[in-house]
Amino acid sequence: MADPILSVERLKKHFPTKLGLVKAVDGISLSVAAGETIGLVGESGSGKTTVAQCIVGIYPPTDGEIRFRGQPISRELRKRSKDLKREIRIVFQDPGSSLNPKRTISQILSVPLKVHRNARGRSRTAMIRNLLEMVELPPDEYLHKYPQSIGGGEKQMVAIARALATSPSFVVLDEPTSALDVSVQAKIINLLLELQTKLSLTYLFITHDLSLMRNVATRVAIMYLGKICEVAPTVEFFRNPLHPYTKMLLSSIPVVSEEEKALKPAKILSRGEIPSPVNVPPGCSFHLRCPMKMEICSEADPEMVEVEPDHLARCHLLSRRS
Ligand code: SF4
Which residue of 35, 84, 156, 303 has the fewest C-beta atoms within 10 A of its own C-beta? Predict the structure, then answer.
């Protein structure tokens, strides 16, 4: 891979709670190349959103390192670097709660323009109009509306415009369509893809919807209980899934074409639910649900191995193969 724009090395985020230590993210490493969309996929409780929150600075990591353009992002750097806040932006899952209901759309968009681009007066108004046009909302119609008077899809378009207001290069999309009606999901996805091409954006796309990643991501990474268990370029990922958990997820998603049908693994029934991250099982964290489990699986945590070029997975079956 060319020099990554963002890389995460052995990132951990643990939360002490009354019930014990929650290991939400437990030592993940991941690199993202400029211009790509990496889909970080997992069930609820897998830790994918915590990874996003560490990257944008909502949580400081417990351990490990995040680098942006080769430079480690420390807590201090994040506090003082306006550039970093301008370059790395996030679009949240629920646009309803991420937009201030007391402000008009024009006021909402003016905040990042004032803070990060020092835009004032007419130039700021022109930028706001331009941002609305970019997300396909006619400015004259939307400038003076409040979030509660527009639909969920339109709110998400405003949230995307707000993220783009600082001219970022890296955008974290935290389940940007999962709170929306199915009828508008495709519209938002198409808009995000068009904007990516037009503005040379890099996306980290957090989702539980693996089938969506087939047409959106350039690479797919699967998270399970705070760890990445498989990562591969999208075509290779769907053609040759390796990890039993990935196969389980793929066996349950709907397919539309004959080609997809031919590649779909035989149905693997899910055994139980993802365990609590307070109580991560020893050995391979997937062993309580894995149909391929062996004796070693409950004793030793498998290492991540590169099975094919750029195709890595963490499973004792694969370590034995290599
Ligand atoms: Fe299953 Fe063992 Fe592989 Fe874990 S290491 S996924 S339990 S076969």
Answer: 303
